UniProtKB/TrEMBL annotation:
Pfam families in the cross-refs: DUF7704
Annotated ranges, domain DUF7704: 3-144
Species, as recorded: Mollisia scopiformis
Transmembrane annotation, as ranges: 12-35, 55-75, 87-107, 119-142
Taxonomic lineage of the native organism: Eukaryota, Fungi, Dikarya, Ascomycota, Pezizomycotina
InterPro entries per UniProt: DUF7704
Keywords tagged on the record: Membrane, Transmembrane, Transmembrane helix
Name of this protein: DUF7704 domain-containing protein
Keyword match Membrane: yes
Length: 153
């Protein structure tokens, strides 16, 4: 593995995050009706339009794309600026992802954390967790980036 990230953000961003993105990519292809209904807890699964199915499939495709881009960038570059800029882009996307989820969700369901479903925990809980790791990394709380072998020579 050529990732220059310190151990904790390396595990989170090169192992945990791609696996969770792949799970998110597979879910709409298994059942787009379930995937759409589960975006907000307590919504019953019901038939969806072909347009809604298309959006669910495209979202799954984007999750797969994000997993591949993350693996490609973090496993191949030894340039700290590239890694940092990539993490900043993810950090900003985390803010947007959580903000949109909170904006669209009914307030009562949003604050009823005990009744969140797995997708809500992914959309808010996991994203806030990733945001926290990215923030700590950007502030240098995990220590410096690991020097690549080619840079040490």
């Amino acid at each position: 593995m050529t990732s220059i990230l310190p151990p904790i953000p390396r595990f989170v961003m090169t192992v945990f995050e791609p696996i969770s993105l792949i799970a998110g990519a597979v879910a709409p292809f298994i059942s787009p009706e379930w995937f759409v209904a589960e975006q907000i807890p307590g919504n019953p699964t019901q038939p969806i339009t072909t347009q809604t199915a298309m959006v669910a499939y495209q979202l799954g495709n984007i999750y797969l794309l994000l997993a591949m881009v993350g693996i490609a960038v973090l496993y191949t570059t030894t340039e700290p600026r590239v890694v940092r800029n990539y993490v900043i882009a993810l950090w900003l996307a985390d803010i947007g992802h959580v903000a949109v989820t909170c904006w669209v969700m009914d307030y009562d369901k949003l604050i009823d954390i005990m009744n969140w479903n797995p997708l809500t925990w992914g959309n808010i809980g996991a994203t806030v967790g990733l945001f926290s790791v990215r923030t700590a990394y950007l502030f240098g709380l995990f220590g410096p980036d690991i020097k690549s072998a080619s840079k040490l020579q």
